[in-house]
Design brief:
Shape: elongated
Strand content: 25-35%
Strand order of the largest sheet: 6-7-8-3-9-10
CATH topology of the largest domain: Rossmann fold
Radius of gyration: 24 Å
Number of domains: 2
Helix content: 25-40%
Number of strands: 15
CATH superfamily of the largest domain: P-loop containing nucleotide triphosphate hydrolases
Structural class: alpha/beta
Largest sheet: 6 strands, mixed
Distance between the termini: 58 Å
Length: 337
Amino acid sequence: MPSSVMPTPRKGDGAHASAAAISTVGLRKSYGDKTVLDGIDLRIPAGSVFALLGPNGAGKTTAVKILSTLISADGGQAQVAGHDLAADPQAVRAAIGVTGQFSAVDGLITGEENMLLMADLHLLPRREGRRVAAELLEQFGLTEAAGKPAATYSGGMKRRLDIAMTLVGSPRIIFLDEPTTGLDPRSRHNMWQIIRELVTGGTTVFLTTQYLDEADELADRVAVLNDGTIAAEGAPEELKRLVPGGHVRLRFTDPDTYRAAAAALPAGTPDEDSLTLQIPSDGSQRDLRSVLDRLDDARIEADELTVHTPDLDDVFFALTGGADVPAQSDATKETVR
């Protein structure tokens, strides 16, 4: 893989984005006759969360392994933490942490010993290593289990220990490959909070996940990988606007008011049985204000207003061809009475 030049930073990439944390141009990888990555271009600002989505086998883990120096690409250019991936992989390794499907946990030793081993690998002084290990074990809710062999941990506990070990060296960039798989809802939300705190401190997080709500909750930018290429990339709200099906639903209790609203909003789809009117909308404040202004002009007041917007599930299915795009999505909605 030839040496690359860091792209010029773009205005508006965020407070931490004087330079890209990760950049790739034309990244390629094949296994035999199967092309997994077919020319991937990415630019991930420092101090942000980037989520890579895609169907199983789309190449998400392959991308993580390449960018974390675990395997080599067949072609293209990449820089991670300001270092050329091909020319200086050791410098890349010193700046990153990796966790996920390829766990570093040793089940034969205790959780605390796993942490201290990682501290030794990072050449931390013994006292500093013990302090860092104790703080991270507490942060991840593993203090009580710290003296037990990791082999006795549940899947969720092993995942938390794995991520805690990744943080021992205070990496500038963290690759989290499906980090919350196997965690219960409370543990997932705790993990989300930890990720937010890391990013607040300037750490860059490269996330792959099978939970689309997780990407929606955490990511500043999302890319959908399909058939070896990036099918779409943008902020979650930008991607949702690519998918049809968003609408504003107005409900009335008075038939005369309902008919007046239908006349004032001819683009709406009426339902006389339920006295509801459905108006196409992208869910933006401007679009909603337009509907409300037209109601005000006609001196009409709805008894209930509900905003329905497509979610990342809809985006994912639309871009990967996994299913038809639903006419509407109730996963993201806000009701005003």
